[in-house]
Design brief:
Layout lengths: L1 H20 L24 E7 L6 H9 L7 E7 L6 H12 L5 E5 L9 H15 L6 E5 L3 E3 L3 H11 L2 E9 L5 H17 L2 H5 L12 E5 H6 L12 H10 L3 E12 L6 H15 L4 H24 L2 H17 L1 H6 L10 H20 L3 E4 L2 E4 L5
Parallel strand pairs: 1-2, 1-4, 2-3, 6-8
Antiparallel strand pairs: 4-7, 5-8, 6-7, 9-10
Length: 387
């Protein structure tokens, strides 16, 4: 009984810490839907760089949304076709032609992937090199994925924030697909856990070491990127967006927030499809450390599984501590549940969701140990435990 009571109060203490002393991550207050930023006196020149590998099903909507940007300054798009065999480049050129945007879109056929590079980083590197070859001025790069759609005012909003707040990086956590039961079960928690790891309020603080970005939509200042070593400095990173944010934060202030201006265009599929997406980088997040893996599994058990088990099956103080921790857990999940327009009762499911994420993390480690870590579009990008 004493052991269970201690576990219950440890879990309760953990949730009290998370709610009170973890940067208010659970409030989900860092969003781009507040008052508009003052407009810059001069609109900087921007180049969007889009890495794409077999994205024919979504590339027309993605590129089309970029070409429709209502941006007063100079803006063009460089698409890097990373060895696609499904007509990705042709689909992009077709939508550009139908919109009269051929002059603003340049398609680059990607070169063979060099050793030591991940596919996405190599594609971005080639796109940036190509953009700079024109000799036209470039103030910012918009690094965005081929499966992200943008509202017409998104670029202007990003640039206005970067200019007014003097940010070297502004990133948006795109609104992810959340329609199937598997997506409703796993996707809001993906954002919730990301916020817990990298509280957005801490990311925005210049003097706080926490740094993060969401790779689907990242605006970076060109000179800051060059001073940080460019894309080559993170060429082998699996979690490349956060690695980029760490380097850019040494150059200046950064910001990350939730948005509805950038959205995922592709559904994530069923439970196991989403699990593979999560496990692609989970073990890399732990630095490929078996010790951290063991600690993470134990911590997830204490924080997510112990409270409902104690609430349902224990007695006395252990039950009440477990119940209190479960209630705090469910309440902390509500802001992101509301953001994704789900019923509040999803908060009670967080223990089961946490168990699923623990399973995916263990699977991620197994994949790395088997030489198939970081699988993306047919490439194993974490063959060993080295980054």
């Amino acid at each position: 009984m004493i052991v269970w009571t201690c576990i219950g109060f440890l879990a309760l203490a953990a949730w009290l810490y998370l709610l009170v002393a973890r940067g208010g991550f659970w409030r989900a207050r860092e969003r781009d839907d507040g008052p508009d930023m003052p407009l810059p006196s001069r609109w900087p020149a921007v180049v969007a760089v889009v890495p794409a590998r077999n994205e024919a099903d979504v590339i027309a909507r993605s590129i089309g949304s970029l070409l429709r940007q209502d941006y007063p300054g100079s803006f063009r798009v460089v698409l890097v076709d990373d060895g696609s065999n499904d007509g990705t480049a042709a689909a992009a050129l077709q939508i550009a032609g139908s919109m009269g945007g051929e002059r603003r879109l340049e398609v680059v056929q990607g070169a063979e992937l060099p050793a030591g590079w991940t596919g996405k980083m190599w594609a971005l590197e080639q796109g940036i090199q190509k953009a700079s070859m024109s000799g036209d001025p470039i103030d910012y790069y918009l690094l965005t994925d081929a499966d992200i759609g943008h509202t017409a005012d998104n670029l202007g909003s990003l640039v206005a924030r970067a200019e007014y707040e003097n940010r070297v990086l502004v990133s948006l956590m795109a609104e992810l697909s959340c329609t199937s039961w598997a997506e409703r079960f796993l996707i809001p928690a993906f954002v919730f856990f990301f916020q817990m790891l990298y509280p957005f309020a801490w990311v925005a603080q210049r003097d706080h070491r926490t740094a993060a970005a969401a790779g689907g939509c990242v605006l970076v200042r060109r000179d800051a990127l060059e001073h940080a070593g460019g894309i080559a400095a993170i060429k082998s990173e699996i979690i490349d967006d956060c690695a980029l944010a760490r380097r850019l934060k040494r150059q200046g202030s950064i910001w990350l927030g939730l948005t509805r201006r950038a959205t995922s265009l592709r559904p994530y599929g069923g439970f196991w499809s989403i699990g593979r997406m999560i496990s692609r980088s989970a073990y890399a997040q732990l630095g490929y450390s078996p010790l951290l893996l063991a600690g993470t599994v134990a911590g997830m058990g204490l924080i997510y599984l112990a409270p409902p088990l104690l609430a349902l099956f224990a007695t006395g103080p252990a039950r009440w501590a477990g119940l209190a921790a479960w209630v705090l857990m469910a309440l902390s999940f509500q802001p992101i549940v509301r953001f994704y327009r789900l019923m509040p009762l999803w908060g009670l499911a967080l223990p089961a969701i946490g168990a699923a994420y623990t399973m995916f993390t263990v699977q991620s480690a197994l994949d790395v140990w088997r030489g198939r870590g970081g699988m993306w579009k047919g490439r194993a990008q974490a063959i060993t435990g080295e980054t």
